[in-house]
Amino acid sequence: MSAGTDDAAPRDVEALAMSETQRVLVVGSGTMGAGIAQVCAQAGMEVAMTDVSTSGLERGLQGIHRSLAKLVEKGKLDAAGRDAVLARIATGPDAGAHAANADLIVEAIPEKMELKLALFRELSAKAPSHALFGTNTSSLSVTEIAGASVDPARVVGLHFFNPVPVMELLEVVRGLATSDATIARALAFAGAIGKKAIVVKDFPGFATSRLGVMLGCEAMRMVEQGVASPADIDTAMKLGYRHPMGPLELTDLVGLDVRLSILEHLHRELGEQFRPPALLRQMVRAGHLGRKTGRGFYVYDAAPKG
User: Fold this and answer.
1) pLDDT at 5 over 90
2) Would you call 191 exposed, middle or buried from its count of C-beta atoms within 10 A (0-12, 13-18, 19+)?
3) What pTM does this model have?
4) b or e along 32-57 (b: 16 or more beta carbons within 10 Å of the residue's beta carbon)?
5) What CATH code would you report for 3-201?
6) C-alpha of 52 from chain center
């Protein structure tokens, strides 16, 4: 193969990816799913956002409305642009009904392997042969999830960060069977929606979750041991290390139950350094899950409704 052919191949793949990723199905309308739907619609893509919960869909749409309203207030988007974004987002309860028209399907459902396997098994049988499948899992095996698909080569991890419209990073996770063409398309998609992508191997916790939960875990142990208050620990990381948000504030934002689930998974896969702190288990049992319940390491005026 000539040097000219080698140079042309990546560009051809990227051009194909850019032209194909016009219709996106986002499964799950929680904080992450709604954010993913918003950034895709802002990039000019036609989006179907689905959820088995009607009330969940309503909350997801409300969250998108609030996010876009803030952009208008800041002068980053005009009213016509806001309306155009909203017009590109359709909603409904049945993901299967939208799968046949999707160029890209992004799963953003709860971090339970059995749910993800069932979803990929169903949708891969209904989607067109060119469709790319992305999972927003933050720690589960992309390779295992891909095993439920008709074509594991087209499955890739697309790990977004909260809040999706604000955070620049997209962690692209290569499963054992993920093809080079799929990675190229995923990277092109990241660029199209204004994200900066890193590519990591499918390994428990990937890069970001593994580092992030370890920092959060140690911060929780410091609270347990009475080393410092949550506010002082967070202030130390914000002022001393220039983190935009402290590890305990971030835990409240992500959800203590989510953090516990990730730590339990990493503890099983990687060992004792990821054993969940007793304090975290106690808080989850008490229903103190962070912002979504109005109480975590901090107390909030009210749990958000979006």
Assistant:
1) no
2) middle
3) 0.86
4) bbbbbbbbbbbbebbbbbbbeeeebb
5) 3.40.50.720
6) 18
